[in-house]
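Predict structure. Chain length: 255.
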Amino acid sequence: MKRTRSLVPLSHDHHHALVAARRLRQAAQTEESERGVAVADFLRFFATETVAHFRQEEEVLFPTLRDADGEAGDLLVRALLDHQRVRALVAELERARAAGTADASVMRQLGELMVEHVRLEERRLFPLIERLVDERTLAALSLHPERTPAADTEAGSGGPVRGEATDELNATLLAWPADGGVREHVNGERDVLVAVLAGSATVTIDGEARLLETGEWVVIEKGRTRSIAAGAEGVRYLTVHRRRAPLQIAASTTR
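Prediction complete.
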C-alpha cells in the first residue's frame, strides 16, 4: 500500500511492531524459560520504540483530526483505546516478570492486540488521514524527521541514540556520520534547542546556514524551515523541546 511520505516513518514502525508482536505470540507456546527471554525482548522493544511511536501519534498526528466526527472520530477513539489497552497489558507483563514468571495468556493477548491495532491504523485510520488532511499539513508535522538522512543518503546510517521525556520536556540525543543529517522540514509546534556535543553540523534555518561546533547551540523557533547536515567528522547533538499535549478521549457532555 502506497503511503504519503510524511507517514512512512510511522508505517515503518508498524512493520517492526508486527514482527515483535508475532514473536511474542509465538513464544507464548514455548517453555517458561523461553517465554522469559521473549518477554524481556518485547519489553525492551516497547520501551525503545513503541513508547515514542505512541507519543508521536497522540501528540502530533492524531490532533490533526481533533475536530473530526463520524468515521474519523470513531477510529481515533478506537486507536487511543488500543494504546491504553497495550500499555495495561505491558504493565501486566512487567509485573509478572518482576515476580519471575512470564504469563503466556497475557503474551498472547498483547501480541494479538498489537497486530489488530496495526491493521486498524494501516488499513483504515492512516488512509482516512491521508484523505482528510492535506499533504502540506502532514509534512509540517515532522514525524520522526531525525530518522531520515539529509539528501536521501543511506538510511539507517545515523539518527536517535537515546531519548528521555517527562510530563513537560522531550530530550533526544542524535548522532550522524559525515554527510548524514536531517532533511529540510518545517519545525512544527514547539521551539527546539539544538546543542552540539561533539563534532560539527551545518544548521540551515529558513535558507540561512550556520555552522555549529562542539559546545555551541541554537534555538529554532516553531514555524521555521530547518535542516541539519553533519560535518566532516560527524556530529552528536541534543534536541530539547516542550512536550506536546497528547490527544485524549474526553468524557461526553451529552445528557
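Summary: Strands lie at 159-165, 169-176, 181-186, 192-205, 208-213, 217-220, 225-242.
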